[in-house]
């Protein structure tokens, strides 16, 4: 069997190693440069690779192709593969064939990294043999190849879900669906929403689907995606029969005659959006029959996720917060909503079809000044010029931090929450967040 892997990042390199160990004839092709660490990994396993090109003749001779999630379907090589009816799948689909472990799969437009990390923390605290994979941490395929975990907590982006066909989650969690990545979905919201619902495909008796009962887009499509799995809602709007809810002061879980309550003040993660994340994790813990003290302790002592509302430093009374992972409007809405002091807001990057009007009321209430961090900031200026008195532009994280510091007053918060992708000025959102933190710490 000839397997071609397109893209030699974390996902692609891991897939190649697993395929090689399973006896495939493997070829890895990356249209860009391949990082040294991945070249070393491929070489160590005797895998043939190319960079800065796609050799069409070799690729179109494949029996099957695994495509990295960052590669859109509209690129010429993927179109050519589809024209030849060569199956194109995701790393998760491929690795799932060889995975015997219990899978807990989390998707959603916002909150999925935090919820994934929180559930992983909970399972580890309970002493389970667990791996963290998908859109976070080490490649799922590489772990299936080299480790022997009993459980995997897997964060799934819509791009990963798009390439999944036979894969099945044992526990699936859908946090919410709000506009994101619409540039990959022909700017049609329904396409994106249906992509998210792929997380429930192939589920049946004995499986569990956790979903937010307060999310209108989820509720819109839910009736079409019923199967024999148990459906467990979580809500901030009052009691549910089986699942989780909050009454404003406490979080409650009801699951198969078991009840669990915890004061919201005890939760490590603050803010309304994090109550949803904590509820989803608590229900998952109950489905997995974890002891209540493990669930309670994990929700109380979780340290949070890097680049997600991450406190960085306080300089002369000004607090710097890194929320670089906020790459869409909804994420930045949550960030601004949770702020309790005046904000100097760093926003901008590669716009994915943003409607800044959704943030208008929060910006009027909370934002003192805006620093635009991007190559093209016209859309941000168009939305907020005349609404916010001071809007300045910056072309680097260092410049953005310097300008923010000058504009902030003692007691203010400088919030990097870009609402955009990072690829105009940075490698990725992590690079953006790290540069922001470094610049803030140098003040």
Automatic annotation (TrEMBL):
<dbReference type="Pfam" id="PF08245">
    <property type="entry name" value="Mur_ligase_M"/>
</dbReference>
<dbReference type="Pfam" id="PF02875">
    <property type="entry name" value="Mur_ligase_C"/>
</dbReference>
<dbReference type="InterPro" id="IPR013221">
    <property type="entry name" value="Mur_ligase_cen"/>
</dbReference>
<keyword id="KW-0961">Cell wall biogenesis/degradation</keyword>
<dbReference type="GO" id="GO:0071555">
    <property type="term" value="P:cell wall organization"/>
</dbReference>
<dbReference type="InterPro" id="IPR005762">
    <property type="entry name" value="MurD"/>
</dbReference>
<feature type="domain" description="Mur ligase C-terminal">
    <location>
        <begin position="307"/>
        <end position="420"/>
    </location>
</feature>
<comment type="pathway">
    <text>Cell wall biogenesis; peptidoglycan biosynthesis.</text>
</comment>
<dbReference type="GO" id="GO:0005737">
    <property type="term" value="C:cytoplasm"/>
</dbReference>
<dbReference type="GO" id="GO:0008764">
    <property type="term" value="F:UDP-N-acetylmuramoylalanine-D-glutamate ligase activity"/>
</dbReference>
<dbReference type="GO" id="GO:0009252">
    <property type="term" value="P:peptidoglycan biosynthetic process"/>
</dbReference>
<keyword id="KW-0067">ATP-binding</keyword>
<keyword id="KW-0573">Peptidoglycan synthesis</keyword>
<dbReference type="InterPro" id="IPR036565">
    <property type="entry name" value="Mur-like_cat_sf"/>
</dbReference>
<dbReference type="GO" id="GO:0005524">
    <property type="term" value="F:ATP binding"/>
</dbReference>
<comment type="similarity">
    <text>Belongs to the MurCDEF family.</text>
</comment>
<dbReference type="GO" id="GO:0051301">
    <property type="term" value="P:cell division"/>
</dbReference>
<dbReference type="InterPro" id="IPR036615">
    <property type="entry name" value="Mur_ligase_C_dom_sf"/>
</dbReference>
<keyword id="KW-0133">Cell shape</keyword>
<dbReference type="InterPro" id="IPR004101">
    <property type="entry name" value="Mur_ligase_C"/>
</dbReference>
<feature type="domain" description="Mur ligase central">
    <location>
        <begin position="106"/>
        <end position="284"/>
    </location>
</feature>
<keyword id="KW-0131">Cell cycle</keyword>
<keyword id="KW-0132">Cell division</keyword>
<protein>
    <recommendedName>
        <fullName>UDP-N-acetylmuramoylalanine--D-glutamate ligase</fullName>
        <ecNumber>6.3.2.9</ecNumber>
    </recommendedName>
</protein>
<keyword id="KW-0963">Cytoplasm</keyword>
<dbReference type="Pfam" id="PF21377">
    <property type="entry name" value="MurD_N"/>
</dbReference>
<keyword id="KW-0436">Ligase</keyword>
<dbReference type="GO" id="GO:0008360">
    <property type="term" value="P:regulation of cell shape"/>
</dbReference>
<feature type="binding site">
    <location>
        <begin position="108"/>
        <end position="114"/>
    </location>
    <ligand>
        <name>ATP</name>
    </ligand>
</feature>
<keyword id="KW-0547">Nucleotide-binding</keyword>
<comment type="function">
    <text>Cell wall formation. Catalyzes the addition of glutamate to the nucleotide precursor UDP-N-acetylmuramoyl-L-alanine (UMA).</text>
</comment>
